Structure formats: C-alpha cells, structure tokens
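Design review, sub-item: ligand-bound model
Attendees: FS, YL, KQ
YL presented the inputs for the 2-OXO-4-methylpentanoic acid complex:
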Amino acid sequence: MTAIEWSTLPFGYMKTNYNVRAYFREGEWSKLEISDSEYIPIHMAATALHYGQQAFEGLKAYMGKDGKIRLFRWEENAKRMQDSANGILMAVPPMELFKDAIVTAVKLNKEFVPPYGTGASLYIRPLLIGNGPRVGVKPADEYMLLVFVSPVGPYFKEGFNPVSIQIAHDSDRAAPLGTGRYKVGGNYAASLMAGERAHKEGFASALFLDAREKKYIDEAGPANFFAIKGKTYITPLSESILPSITNKSLMTLAEDMGLTVERRKIPVEELAEFDEVGACGTAAVISPIRRIVDPATGEEFFYCKDGKAGEVSTQLYKKLLGIQYGDEPDTHGWITFVE
Ligand code: PLP
Ligand code: COI
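KQ shared the predicted structure:
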C-alpha cells in the first residue's frame, strides 16, 4: 500500500481491504460475509435499480490519542437505517447485525483508520438495497446490507473555514410528506441539480426551503442547518429534513453550554437576525457559513465578519470533535470502542 497523505485527504472513496455483506432471503438475514471485491452482483430487475428501494447511512470511526478506535452514536445510525427501511418497505436490519457489520468492516480495515491528529477519520457507509427482481411496482423480497469504509477528510474543502451557500428556489429535495426524513438515494438525486449549480457558481452547497410554502429553511444538500442568535441555538423543525445525529448531539452540547435550544420554523427573512449560522452533519461536522445568497431577491446575508467562525460554533465544534476523538470526557455515553 502506498503511503496515505492523511492530513490532505478529501471526502471521497478510497479502496480498502474488505467490505461486509449480509443477505435477506426467504424472510431471514444471513450471516455476515466478507468480500474483497468492490463490486456487487445485482439482478437487472432489482427494485433498487428501478424503484429506488435503497437507503444508506454515514458514520465515522475516530482514532484517539490512546490508539483506540471510537464509534460515535452508532445506535442512532442503526435506528435511522431501520426507519428508512420501514419508510420504503425494505427488510429491516436488526441492531446487532448493523453493529456487527460496521465493527467488522472497521476491524478488517484498521490500517485505514487515520492516525490521531491528522484531522481525518474513517467514514463508514452502510448501504441497504432491494435486490430481488420486480417488474410491477412492489417491494422486493430480497435485500442486501453492505458496509464499506473509506478514510476521509472534510466534506467541504474549506474544512472549518467559513463557506458560502445558495438558496434553491426552483427545486425541492423532498416533498412535505415525502421521503426527506429517510436517508434514501432519491432525496440526493433530487438535490443534484441545485447542488451542482451552486458548485458551478462558487458556492459550497445549496440550501433548500420547505417544499410547501418556500418560506422556511429546510436544510443544506448534505447537512442540517443551525443558527445562533444571542444565547439561543435554533434549528429547523420540518418533516422533510433528515434527522441529523450531529445536530441532535449539538443541541445537547448547546444545552450543556447553557444555551437555549429552539427547534422551529425559520423564515428566510430571519437570516438577517442571526449572529452565526452553520451546516452540520457527519461528513460536514460543522461548516460555518459566512454568506448566504438568495437568488430570488438578490439578497445576501453575511456572517463571520472577521473571516473566522463565530465563537459559539467554534466552541461546539471543539466539544464535538473532542468527544469523538476522545480528548473530552464522553459524558453522554456516545462512544463505543472497537476492541
Ligand atoms: N442532512 C442530510 C441531507 C444528510 O445527508 C446528512 C448526512 O448524513 C445530514 C443532514 C446530517 O446527518 P448526520 O448528522 O446524522 O450525519
Ligand atoms: C453524511 O454526512 O454522512 C452524509 O451522508 C452526507 C453526504 C455524504 C451524503
């Protein structure tokens, strides 16, 4: 293996040693299988290919100063994958199978867990697909759970440096009663047009509004949205956004820091009143936002006036990463060691 430049890793795919797979057939989950192939055999009429029966997860393993590998809140990812599976009528992977799959995938690829201090981590990508054949629109009767891993750096190339984002008015990633709260591929397909336009026009991401009224902030393409106003942490309440585990954790940490947490609708005009805003997620961690452009009105909202992330966002970022890398005490029981 050629040496990996850990501290300049992008957020991307890198081939590792192994991935793991389990199959749901005739009403039962198989034992885990280990594979060194990057490919999967799939029936040409699989429902994942035709009718979008597909869900995924994203979590990370972190190497501490003590050389121990830590998983962050894996149970939350397992539960969310179960919700996604129920939401689009797929076989539900049991918690223990999910845990076994991610732990095995990490253990088999230990040398790809970035060393402490490099700022990188091992991204874990569980994937659940309908791979039984159907031509009529119906759920499959066979499923595959697969977990691969890839060492990654920051999702936005700016890392913790503030980014610019663009409000999307002409497309929605999910309908109000659609699949936005599940982590299914269709939501990401729906976000591509606005996301790619944003990139082309120099923004790190698109910011989606609520699909019903186009008045309230929903979330960014790959991350939730939060804002700081005085001593309050504010984040959208919406049925069409992904329930982010990072955001949930930041709400707890904000309360620990003495902030008030509000989950409520955020009208676009309120962007003018915030002290700090950011995008948050496993991949994005916290991405401070310095500028939000609304192409519909031409309005621009500016934050991070001195070019740096705000004080509260910085404190939250340090606390969250501190827990994930083991530099801060795990007071909420969020860490599982990979022995
Ligand atoms: N929103 C979307 C659309 C995402 O893809 C993600 C990433 O998983 C998030 C939010 C953040 O969720 P989490 O913090 O659980 O990674
Ligand atoms: C994550 O934060 O884990 C994500 O999945 C975001 C994106 C890569 C889809």
